[in-house]
Structure formats: C-alpha cells, structure tokens
C-alpha cells in the first residue's frame, strides 16, 4: 500500500518512516509533484490536519495522511497550541518560538505542558479517520540537547531527566506524542 504524507517537513518524514508497518510505502509531496504551501487556518489540531489531508486527497486521489502537532501549556491558556510552529510570528524560527515561550514562563513554577499530535487520514475511497497521541511533561528553564526539532530542547517528558532533544530518536519514538498517534494509525493500517 502506498500512502502520501502531506508534509513538506523532512524531519517529520524521517521521524515517522519507521513508525508505520513495513508493507506501507510513504510517498512525499515531492514524489506526487505537489509543491504548494497549504494554509493551516483551523482552530484545532484536528481541523489543521484535515485541511492538509483533504487538500492532498483532492489533488491526487490517493490515500494520504497529515498530522498537526501542538505544544499546549495550561498556564498560558493552551498556548502555543495550534500556533506552535508560528508562535513568535509567521516567519519565526524554532529558536524564536522557544525564546518567546521561555520568556512568557520566566519566573513561573507551573511549567507543565504536553505535546499532542493528531493524524488525519483519508483512505483511497476518501473516508476520513483521525488518531491522536499525547506526551506530558514540563518546560525546562533552558535549552538542552541537539536532537529532534521544534520545542524538543525545552520539553522534558514526565519520568525522564532528559529533554526530547537529549534523547535518541529510538528512545523518543517509544514515548513521543507522534509515536503514540502513529501506533494507533499503524494498527489501523494493519487491519485494513
């Protein structure tokens, strides 16, 4: 079975490549000739994920999936949330986003947070399915580690002394929000 992953992010492709069943071939947007940006203007992670999956399904008619991930900080009323990738502005880098978040939490002891990933899947007949996963933890006061991407250097999962960026990809994939969502997605793909 071939499935298109509706992302231009090579880090996401790399991270999920080993999370789907061996009989599934993931195709990139480049492989199907899609080079446009898709505006994510949904109010929830699920809405954003389906905006991307629906766009790609309408473009190629192939089974496809997309994910959207947000870092949710309850102290900040759920921010960055759906704006995680552009928290410090539309053209902001991961460093800019982390800097803004750390500034907003400066002096705060309540640093609990969680990542949530929602996967939106359109099968070859156009049916829609969604799968989600969460990883709970805290926001550190400083950056630690060089692995991963996004907020990984400042997110320490519960039960660990390391941030996501200090963990190996293998270790992170055992506990991450994305891995949890992809386990559910993979189980679904294995039964269809």
UniProtKB/TrEMBL annotation:
**Gene3D superfamilies, from UniProt?**
3.90.950.10
- Active site at 68 (proton acceptor)
Keyword list, A-Z: Hydrolase, Magnesium, Metal-binding, Nucleotide metabolism, Nucleotide-binding
- Keyword Nucleotide-binding attributed: yes
Cofactor binding mode, per the note? Binds 1 Mg(2+) ion per subunit.
Name its co-factor(s): Mg(2+)
The enzyme's E.C. designation: 3.6.1.66
Biological processes annotated in GO: nucleotide metabolic process; purine nucleoside triphosphate catabolic process
Q: Detail which positions bind substrate.
A: 7-12, 69, 149-152, 172, 177-178
Taxonomic superkingdom: Bacteria
Entry GO terms, CC: cytosol
Q: Which family does it belong to?
A: Belongs to the HAM1 NTPase family.
Oligomeric state and partners?
Homodimer.
Q: What is this protein called?
A: dITP/XTP pyrophosphatase
Q: Which organism is it from?
A: Sediminicola luteus
